[in-house]
């Protein structure tokens, strides 16, 4: 993978720059790659430990050769959890932004799985030793409700519901501009639909891996089918508070679709968002929140709805943007 250092990245540490370009990879893992000579600036490997904090000058081309993560086994860790719902089959948690769901790419502690094992002991084994209980996932910087299965039968039931699209997932996001108008590519304008008596704009754009930057996904005709419905709840000068529902669960789906129509999620530099909106402090994350999930309780089949409140940083930025 290669990345070009732009003017806005001048003066950044090498490890910080790469962490921003590769948000699914921990900084510790990236630092390990730098020390192992897997990161190259121009033609010279950045092998020395001091290069980890080396400052970028602009115009460089940084190449990364990722190494596979070593096999890990998740262990219990005393990390507080915001538990939204619990029964004999499952638990629903409000995951904070910045928490990784499970170990990988150099991250072996501080994950949601570590916390779940501490609080609940045994979880379903379907996902293996690294991902006990994990039925679905959220990006590291996406906050909100996520489900974990306590035993295999519950895991299998929930997995079937996700696969057959019986689970309804609702998200909240801050996006740049007003998606209801403005310069949007004609092919990506979406169409108006009515669902449950509410008017939504439906985006139907297949998603595939970006051929130029493997850490990104992209709206591409040859990709897998992806559907996102959205509606604007509030708007201010230059920003909108948007509610979204996804019928499919492609990697980075909401982030890709909103970027494709010219309205990236605020703070999502991987998909073209501004580094820092005018009038606010520098952003360390993108602002996407899994607000609600509706599904059938695995044992009873009864419908369940679980909602997650916004974090303080999300609420603070919302107010700062006048939303």
Let me know the number of strands. Answer: 16
Q: Tell me about the biggest sheet?
A: 10 strands, mixed
Averaged pLDDT, please?
88
Distance between the termini: 38 Å
The outline comes out as globular
Task: Give the radius of gyration.
Answer: 20 Å
Low-confidence stretches: 183-187
Proportion of residues in β-strands: 25-35%
Can you tell me the CATH architecture of the largest domain?
2-Layer Sandwich
- Count of alpha and pi helical runs: 6
Number of domains: 3
Order of helices and strands: EHHEEEEEHEHEEEEEEEHEEH
Task: Bin the helical content.
Answer: 10-25%
The helix-and-strand class reads alpha+beta
Look at the structure and give the CATH class of the largest domain: Alpha Beta
The H-level CATH homologous superfamily of the largest domain, spelled out, is Pseudouridine synthase
Find the CATH topology of the largest domain: Pseudouridine synthase
List keywords for this structure.
323 residues, alpha+beta, Structural Genomics Hypothetical 15.5 Kd Protein In mrcA-pckA Intergenic Region, Chain A, Pseudouridine synthase, 3 domains, four-stranded antiparallel beta sheet, 6 helices, globular
General description of the model:
- The protein is an alpha+beta fold and 323 residues long.
- It has three domains: 63 residues, Roll (Structural Genomics Hypothetical 15.5 Kd Protein In mrcA-pckA Intergenic Region, Chain A); 81 residues, Pseudouridine synthase (2-Layer Sandwich); 153 residues, Pseudouridine synthase.
- About 2% of the residues have low confidence.
- 38% of the residues are buried.
- Helix content is 17%, strand content 27%.
């Amino acid at each position: 993978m290669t990345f070009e250092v732009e003017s806005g990245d001048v003066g950044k540490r090498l490890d910080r720059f790469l962490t921003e370009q590769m948000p699914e990879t921990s900084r510790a893992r990236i630092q390990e790659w730098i020390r192992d000579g897997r990161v190259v600036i121009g033609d010279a490997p950045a092998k020395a430990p001091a290069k980890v904090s080396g400052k970028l000058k602009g115009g460089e081309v940084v190449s990364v050769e990722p190494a596979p993560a070593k096999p890990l086994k998740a262990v219990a860790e005393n990390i507080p959890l915001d538990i939204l719902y619990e029964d004999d089959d499952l638990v629903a948690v409000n995951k904070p932004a910045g928490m990784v769901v499970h170990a990988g790419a150099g991250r072996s502690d501080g994950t949601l799985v570590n916390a779940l094992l501490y609080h609940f002991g045994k979880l379903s084994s379907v996902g293996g030793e690294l991902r006990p209980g994990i039925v679905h996932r959220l990006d590291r910087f996406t906050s909100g409700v996520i489900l974990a299965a306590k035993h295999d039968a519950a895991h299998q039931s929930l997995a079937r519901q996700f696969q057959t699209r019986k689970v309804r997932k609702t998200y909240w996001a801050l996006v740049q501009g007003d998606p209801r108008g403005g310069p949007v590519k004609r092919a990506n304008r979406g169409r108006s639909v009515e669902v449950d008596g509410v008017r939504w704009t439906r985006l139907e754009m297949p998603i595939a891996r970006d051929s130029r930057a493997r850490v990104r996904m992209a709206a591409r005709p040859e990709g897998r089918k992806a559907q996102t419905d959205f509606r604007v709840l509030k708007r201010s000068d230059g920003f909108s508070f948007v509610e979204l529902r996804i019928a499919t669960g492609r990697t980075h789906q909401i982030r890709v679709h909103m970027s494709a129509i010219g309205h990236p999620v605020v703070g999502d530099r991987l998909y073209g968002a501004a580094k820092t909106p005018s009038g606010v402090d520098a952003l360390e994350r993108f602002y996407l929140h899994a607000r609600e999930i509706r599904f059938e309780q695995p044992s009873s089949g009864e419908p369940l709805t679980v909602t997650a409140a916004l974090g303080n940083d999300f609420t603070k930025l919302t107010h700062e943007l006048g939303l």
